[in-house]
Amino acid sequence: MKAHSAAWLAAVALAAGVARANRPDFREQIVVPGGRFGLGTDHIEFPLDAEGPARPVTVKPFVLDKYEVSIDRFAEFVNATGYITEAERFGWSFVHEKALDEAVLQTITQAVQSVPWWLPVDNASWSHPEGAASDASGRGSHPAVHLSHADADAFCAWAMPGGRLPTEVEWERAARGGKEGRMYAWGNKLKPRNKHRANIWQGQFPLKNTARDGFKWAAPVDAFGPQNQWGFHGVAGNAWEWTATEWCDPARPAPDCRGKQAPADAGDVEWVKKGGSFLCHKSYCFRYRVAARTKNTANSGAYNLGARCARDATPEEQRLVESGSAVQVGAPEVGNAVPPSTEGVTDGAKVGYRPGQHAAAGADEL
Ligand SMILES: *[C@@H]1O[C@H](CO)[C@@H](O)[C@H](O)[C@H]1NC(C)=O
Ligand SMILES: *[C@@H]1O[C@H](CO)[C@@H](O)[C@H](O)[C@H]1NC(C)=O
To answer: What residues does the Sulfatase-modifying factor enzyme-like domain cover (predicted)?
Structure first.
């Protein structure tokens, strides 16, 4: 594990008795102070993403996972509940072509024209990230991916009392770490002192990832250390993270969804996702900026799409952050072991492979 800087330790008060100096178990959480801050940016890179102009928003104190949900945590959830993810119901998910070996590539006959590097791979899922022949063992510290919105919701509801996905406003509040107007979670320079701060793509997308940051694909959820002074890891790069905020027509003033026609199928609802991924390169997906946002339909699954969980702060936790500094708290009780409801989960058998719909999701994503 990387050594934490003295400044970071000073900024994050560790609750007595819960901090584990040597090995984080990736269930720690951070209480984020409420307040008013600027959401979005005036330096707009993608106008159609409605990422600007910056606008003041107010948020109540809340609690957010310090790390992306790891494969180990998700495995614990599946073991306790028997949950079956949507990718498993569908029987396939999208994987980047360069992550696949020749034997798998030869079985694939379909591709999405606008994003030909995304290939539908049989039996790809959180536990088989590159398809049936792959498995996640030895990668327990990596982010759980191929999660649909409903899968992420179900995990969060199980993982802690009151567990849920963060809203976009909460997510961005946490990722900014109390600093206004910055480009990245840690500041304005992508590589301060020439040091990589996030797992993104180096080289020519989508042909070659030189992995100068140390990782070609997903990385352990703590691989780059805290990315801001509140102690959050992986809010830039690694896996995209679902939020609880519905994506609105950018022609309307975001985030107002009034007037947007609700899709008939819950699986077609579009949700905001934040953070960018290990596939993001400035030339194509400059979305590891803290204000960046894009979307996927609820039932999308992909090799680079995961989550982190939030909950409301208790009154005691709210008092802890009155001074305006974030405070790390221990892990919640392991799961509440209540099998999640599958209501609203799309029936994979009915849906199957719908190239058109997923083409749209894929194109938004990178
Ligand atoms: C799965 O759950 C059982 C008890 O329900 C437990 O004995 C076992 O260790 C668990 N396995 C994992 C991998 O968590
Ligand atoms: C995918 O899983 C199904 C159901 O377990 C199985 O029948 C099928 O052979 C698997 N496909 C591949 C390519 O392994």
So the answer is: 27-311
Maximal CA-CA distance, the chain: 58
What is the span of the domain harbouring residue 296?
6-256+265-333+357-365
CA distances from 159 to 155, 156, 306 (A): 6, 5, 15
Q: Residue 63: CB partners within 8 Å, gap ≥ 6?
A: 29, 30, 31, 32, 310, 311, 312, 313, 317, 329
Q: Residue 217 falls within a domain, yes or no?
A: yes
Ligand 1 site-directed mutation target among 79, 83, 127, 334, most atoms within 8 Å of CB = 79
Q: Does a structural domain hold residue 341?
A: no
Spell out the per-residue pLDDT of the chain, length 366, in tens: 333 333 333 333 333 233 434 556 899 999 999 999 999 999 999 998 989 999 999 999 999 999 999 999 999 999 999 999 999 999 999 999 999 999 999 999 888 888 889 999 999 999 999 999 999 999 999 999 999 999 999 999 999 999 999 999 999 999 999 999 999 999 999 999 999 999 999 999 999 999 999 999 999 999 999 999 999 999 999 999 999 999 886 665 545 676 677 788 889 899 999 999 999 999 999 999 999 999 999 999 999 999 999 999 999 999 999 999 999 998 776 555 454 554 444 333 323 333 333 333 444 455
Strand duo 327-329 + 13-14: pairing: parallel
Separation of CA 128 from chain center: 18
In the numeric block, the tokens 């949507």 are attached to 86
- For residue 40, being part of any structural domain is answered with yes
- In this structure, what CATH number is given to the domain that contains residue 102? 3.90.1580.10
One-character DSSP codes across 265-322:
SGGG-EEEEES--TT--TTT----STT--EEEETT--BTTEE---EEEPPHHHHHHTT
Ligand 2 atom closest to Cα of residue 107: 13
* Nearest atom (ligand 1) to Cα of 76: 14
Q: How many separate domains does the chain show?
A: 1
What residues pair up with 31 in beta bridges, in sequence order? 63, 327
Q: What is the pTM of this model?
A: 0.86
Atom of ligand 2 nearest to the CA of 122: 13
